Amino acid sequence: MAADNDSFSLEEFVDKLVAHVHAEQDSDEYPSMRGWEDIGRRALARSRRAPVPKFLYGPLTATDPEMETCTNVRDVNHAPDFARGDNPLGDDTKEKMWSIVLDFGAINIFRLMVHPNDFGQSVENLEILSCLFYEGLCGFHITENGEPIVEAHVPCAPQNLPDTSRARQMVFEFDVATWKNAIEVFEITHATMPDRRQYNNI
């Protein structure tokens, strides 16, 4: 039996090995587990290669798949960069929220941004509010009784803002559970921010 890569068949070799070692058994029967252990010990004694049970993971005639080269492409569909002025929701919506904060002077952050019937618009409202925080038009603090409050700041030119104000950011976790809990705790029955589906169609 030839042993080069083109003509050697592992399946044929195993069949001949079974027939030779267990000639007294029927051709349809494979040797017992003890017979395979004996074959393995004999082969291992004459081999310098570590035993690798590669053939157990698939057909004996399977060939290794060809390697394909590919390049990883980073996901460019990232969140908008507010430092560059990206605001997919528009300046009109941002001005609308800021005018509401100005009218109230100080308002509970959940009452400002939560839409009780639409979680998606609540998330968008939080995104708009983050723009106002970033531009220094709104501030955030927690009162003595633990209520989160948003208040309006007097607008000033960006060059007049201190560096600490520019770099200050706040991470706010907001998921469906938080949205439902805020509606229940603060008894929110209507949206402070107008429904965009209504005033966008005007």
Instruction: Please indicate the count of domains.
Output: 2
What structural class do you assign from the helix and strand content? mainly alpha
- Which whole number gives the mean pLDDT? 71
How many β-strands, per DSSP? Answer: 3
Low-confidence stretches are 75-88
- Tell me, briefly, the overall form: rod-shaped
Number of helices: 8
Strand content: 5-15%
Helix content: 25-40%
What is the CA-atom radius of gyration, in angstroms? Answer: 36 Å
**Distance separating the two termini:** 85 Å
Largest sheet: 3 strands, antiparallel
Strand order of the largest sheet: 1-3-2
Order of helices and strands: HHHEHHEEHHH
Keywords: DNA damage, DNA recombination, DNA repair, Nucleus
Family: Belongs to the NSE4 family.
GO cellular component, one term: Smc5-Smc6 complex
Organism: Suillus placidus
Task: Characterise the protein shown here.
The protein is mostly helical and 202 residues long. The chain folds into two domains: 10-57, no CATH class; 87-199, no CATH class. Helix content is 39%, strand content 6%. The chain contains eight helices and three strands. A three-stranded antiparallel beta sheet has the order 1-3-2. β2 and β3 form a beta hairpin. α3 (91-104) packs across α5 (119-134). It is rod-shaped. The termini are far apart. Residues 75-88 have low confidence and may be disordered. It comes from Suillus placidus. Belongs to the NSE4 family. Component of the SMC5-SMC6 complex, that promotes sister chromatid alignment after DNA damage and facilitates double-stranded DNA breaks (DSBs) repair via homologous recombination between sister chromatids. This is Non-structural maintenance of chromosomes element 4. Component of the SMC5-SMC6 complex.
